[in-house]
Amino acid sequence: MPIPIVNSIASWFLKKRFHQIDLFLKYPVEVQEELLHSLLDKAKNTEIGRAYNFSSINTYREFADRIPVTTYEDNEARIERARRGETNIFWPKPIKWFAKSSGTTNSKSKFIPVSDESLENCHYAASKDLLCMYLNNNPDSQLFLGKGLRLGGSKELYKDNGTVYGDLSAILIDNMPFWAEFSSTPSNEVSLMGDWETKLDAIVSQTINEKVTSLAGVPSWMLVLLNAVAEKTGKENLFEIWPSLEVYFHGGVSFEPYVDQYKKLLPRDTFRYYEIYNASEGFFAIQDQNSSNELLLMLDYGIFYEFIPMDSYGTPEEKVIPLCEVEKDQNYAIIITTNAGLWRYKIGDTVRFTSINPYRIKVTGRTKHHINAFGEELIIENAEAALRKATNLTQTEIVDYTAAPIFMEGKEKGAHEWIIEFKTPPEDFEFFSQLLDKALQEVNSDYEAKRNNNTTLRAPTIHCGRERLFYDWLKEKNKLGGQHKVPRLSNSRGYIEELLSLNR
Looking at the predicted structure, is the pLDDT value of residue 383 above 50? Predict the structure, then answer.
């Protein structure tokens, strides 16, 4: 059993919190509406609140009609003013923290405001909820008898004006109470180191002798760390190093491409994987069941949700709908209004509702990261389901991948071009390519129609990436570690051309 006093505190918090969760499970629409009015009331005297007369908004419809849907570019000027020390622009309290986010590989960084309210009532609240849900589902957990191994980013000071920016994970680590460090490894000093390769060595050295009971971090970079631990210790089974390890809390990128590699490193049927859905803009959803990786949409973290059906996204018919109008098994782009002053903000993610009572979701990809050059509308969820099938049938393992269109030229049909770095490559590459093509047709009817008799699309062109290709590409862009992600799918050829050039 866990340490008795910790267990008692957790049980008390659990009971108290579950009452609140039960409230938004039973009354999701009402909880969201009340939250919206609270956000409008708090910000009514800000610059943006006065501009749109927040104080006179009484209904969701008035809110939706009056305030435009925005992107980061629409908000950039206001955010830059806040970074220079101006206050009361989009949130009434001064904002000291800005989460630096470049999405996947955009050269231009975004600086997402992080208010005191979003730190406490969203990000930290979600961390507590995650632990509570895990402990509730696993009452024999020994989680608190050891330490959590966390993988965070670096921080920098925006020197001229006293505001601070860095990876969200670094901001969270930097603001944790001092006692929280005692239950975590590595130390804050190591966690916040800037150079990824130096930090990797330091984390390995500092953690291999600790009693680690949990892991937390982005799957791609955590895998790099765990492989480094295995190499340093000469162990293939990480339970030989950390016998009490019981759960991995992960998010940031899809776990699907990495499942088999994690199971090799962590070969224990009782080991748990718990998924979360968070971003620089907020913490949105948590896995609340052992047996399912569907994510419960958390409705009381100071975030008001709206959605755009992806079949109309970016068209003149585009329509924004509130939570109460979403349908199961439909793909939506997310719009958020937050307690850090983002108003009707497109975060660029897409989700599919797996349940509407309660509201549970799966993250399906990014609005910009899909291939729709020929009407095929290939999304990341399709790609990873197909890759999973192809790798299972060929006993292969994937490190990373990306894909882009080959555009039609003259009478030549279009195609998709993939570059895949394998940990265990297929014996018959042509057979793997055929399996992937077939699996894509099975999971995406539009792709199947375009591939039928090569109507629009030829068979995909697939390249085998050299060892460390994607790592070297990210290193070249100074984007190692932290929250940096490889773009899986793109409608343009920029990423793949760079990778093909490095692959020669």
Answer: yes
CA atoms of 138 and 63, how far apart (whole Å): 42
Calpha distance 175→127 (Å, rounded): 13
The DSSP secondary structure of 83-126, one letter per residue, reads: HTT--SSSSSS---EEEEE-TTT-SS-EEEEE-HHHIIIIIIHH
* pLDDT for residue 377: 83
Q: What is the reported pLDDT for 299?
A: 96
Domain final position from 241, 274, 293: 293
- Would you say 467 and 502 are in contact if contact means Cβ atoms under 8 Å apart? no
Same domain, 278 and 385: no
Question: Structural domain of residue 417, as residue ranges?
Answer: 380-502
Query: DSSP for 208-250?
Result: TTS-EEEEEE-HHHHHHHHHHHHHHHT-S-GGGT-TT--EEEE
Domain match, 384 and 289 both? no
Same domain assignment for residues 426 and 287: no
**Among 239, 274, 293, which residue terminates a domain?**
293
Note the pLDDT of residue 252.
81
In degrees and rounded to multiples of 5, residue 319 shows phi and psi of: -130, 135
Sheet holding 163-166, edge to edge: 110-114, 97-101, 163-166, 155-158
pLDDT band at residue 478 using 50, 70 and 90 as cut-offs: confident
Query: Are residue 388 and residue 487 in the same domain, yes or no?
Result: yes
- State the first-to-last Cα distance of the chain, in angstroms, to the nearest integer: 55
Check whether 105 has a pLDDT greater than 50. no
For helices 125-137 and 4-26, what crossing angle results, to 10°?
100
